[in-house]
Design a protein that fits this description.
Length: 342
């Protein structure tokens, strides 16, 4: 059973706003705040051979060792074609405004709107789709959670959801996502109990902007991030490493439809531009063990991100006082086990 707690202050005000948008939203428990430096990789010390996976009967020893060494693990054909087609159809409905999931952030290339109107040729991302019943099914698929539990433990929270529709790009590199670490965006720890599940909705390769990873970088600390110094346009909240080591080996993850990669939040990764005339879709969720705790990001490398995100939410909901933890409380959904901290 999900453990519910009372809310007050700014959290309650945001609660009222979001409840007005969607009666299904339930109150989250009061978060436990454990101040710590966000610069430090919080990996629990465990005895034995593996630090980044838990004992389980799903992963082979070779798979656990691969994740231990590299920070990611690719599982072929994990999600069915039928499910992916359902997700694609729901995405198109959102693009056409046939459905409007409360709280979802729909990102568009406004320069294409006059040419294509409301269509998938304009929308490049649907973020925070936890209130869309159809898309959120992805976060509850037994075949996905079976693997997620190997990293998070049995009490699983879906924390951050995205459906990316990488549009055909130009030399402006509009939809290039710079190399980054996802932990930069997350005010909760420990990192070892967080994992991303990223599923290709069609073939992803170097031509249409597949994922690019730097194996083994999950063993490093969280690095400073910011907007890249590129010519042309940069996307809102698409932060990247401020000091990227170009010598670090990169691997392009070529994936077929339904293939799913699980990766650590400190793994340095990004994606290239889509040089084709089609789209490159993926659906993903960051999961965390509900035993994870919130941290205070003030006076850390994550503080400027907090200010930017909070300001965006205040403008969107016309809320005068919202904290970072409030935002994450409303994104978070229990998908398995018991809700403890998050």
């Amino acid at each position: 059973m999900e453990q519910l707690g009372k809310r007050s202050g700014p959290a309650a005000r945001l609660d009222v706003i979001l409840r007005h948008l969607s009666p299904r939203l339930g109150a989250a428990p009061a978060p436990i705040s454990v101040p710590t430096s966000a610069q430090v990789s919080a990996v629990p010390q465990q005895s034995g051979r593996f630090r980044y996976t838990l004992d389980n009967d799903v992963l082979t020893t070779e798979q656990r060792q691969f994740y231990e060494d590299n920070g990611y693990l690719l599982i072929k054909k994990l999600v069915s074609d039928e499910d992916i087609e359902r997700f694609r159809k729901e995405f198109v409905r959102i693009c056409r405004r046939e459905v409007n999931p409360p709280g979802a952030m729909i990102m568009k290339d406004e320069s294409l709107k006059s040419q294509y109107g409301q269509s998938e040729k304009v929308v490049n991302k649907v973020q925070d789709f936890q209130e869309d019943k159809e898309l959120f099914r992805y976060c509850t698929l037994p075949e996905v959670l079976r693997y997620v539990e190997c990293f998070t433990g049995p009490n699983i929270m879906a924390m951050h959801t995205m459906l990316i529709n990488k549009l055909p790009d130009s030399d402006q590199q509009t939809f290039l996502h710079p190399m980054h670490q996802d932990l930069h965006y997350f005010p909760f720890r420990p990192a070892a109990r967080i994992v991303c599940s990223w599923t290709a909705m069609e073939r992803a390769d170097q031509d249409n902007g597949c994922l690019i990873v730097q194996p083994g970088t999950h063993k490093q600390h969280l690095k400073p991030h910011g907007y890249p110094q590129w010519e042309g346009k940069t996307n809102k909240l698409f932060h990247g490493l401020l000091d990227e080591d170009e010598k670090t080996p990169k691997v392009h993850l070529v994936m077929e439809k339904g293939d799913t990669v699980f990766f650590h939040p400190l793994l340095i990764h990004g994606s290239g531009i889509n040089k084709t005339s089609g789209f490159r879709k993926s659906i993903s969720c960051h999961f965390a063990g509900s035993e994870c705790h919130y941290i205070d990001v003030k006076n850390t490398s994550q503080e400027h991100l907090e200010k930017e995100l909070v300001e965006m939410v205040r403008k969107k909901y016309n809320a005068t006082s919202v904290e970072l933890r409030d935002i994450w409380n409303f994104r978070a959904r229990l998908v398995q086990g018991e809700r403890i901290n998050l």
